[in-house]
Amino acid sequence: MGGAKVFLDYDQKQLDDAYDQSVYAPNRDQLIARGIRNSELARERLGEPLHFSYGPDEIEQLDVYKAPRPGAPVHVYIHGGAWRSRRAAEYAFAAEMFLRAGVHFVVPDFAAVTEVGGSLLVMAAQVRSALAWVHRHASSFGGDASRLYVSGTSSGAHLAGVLAATDWSLEGLPPDPVQGYVLANGMYDLRGPRLSKRSSYVSFTDEIEAELSPQRHLERIRAPIVLLYGSLETPEFQRQSRDFAAALRGAGKRVELILAEGYNHFELAETLGHPYGPVGRAILSQMGS
Known about the structure:
Elements: E1 5-7, E2 10-11, H1 12-18, H2 21-24, H3 28-46, E3 50-53, E4 61-65, E5 72-78, H4 95-100, E6 104-108, H5 120-137, E7 143-153, H6 155-164, E8 180-184, H7 191-195, H8 206-211, E9 225-230, H9 235-250, E10 255-260, H10 265-270, H11 278-287
Parallel strand pairs: 5-6, 5-7, 7-8, 8-9, 9-10
Antiparallel strand pairs: 1-2, 3-4, 4-6
């Protein structure tokens, strides 16, 4: 028999498992290692990216893979890692697709939640600062700030969703600095994660749950959003995508929901750099590239 229900129809173990991709993706370590190696090979072919600081902390830097022609659109990718791991350098594998499409590819680094006292507010502030820096300084690397797009996967999709639900006037930017978002395998309401074992390293509070749940701030969302999830994804990550899409649609927002058949959490994220994979195709389609 299962234990007492703690959230929806989940007992505690079921909920914990639903926020632990390794339970549903046994090839996790293989895919992460492959991505790291493919990123090393991509940097050998492309050369090292440009590095810029977007804030005063050492971690507050971003990698820019520069497209060959000036005035090109800019795509900012927010990486995942359960809010507590991974670095920008591990995503160079996707740069070649963007450069071949004539798009600058930008990947910011930001603190792990375990390095900032468990506060997602710090991480959210950092990714906002990174995006604001790119918008203000795109011309410094040949980018067109009027054609700025964002994607994210996993916890990076959550943080990118926070960007989508940001009041940019408070950051001194135009109200609609981003032309579109592609979010894969994300979390858009933090109630479930807060009740799961992720609370062992994230210091959830009522303020964090409320402020950093994009689904609760639909009125702030202006840009179109494409949401993707895999058919082999965990049940909670599937539900999160479906529920966010339904909420956006109900609020009259521009949204597309894509179910990627046969992909688990990490397999779908790997298609970020593939023009014929679900994530890569969605990004290029949205950008018209």
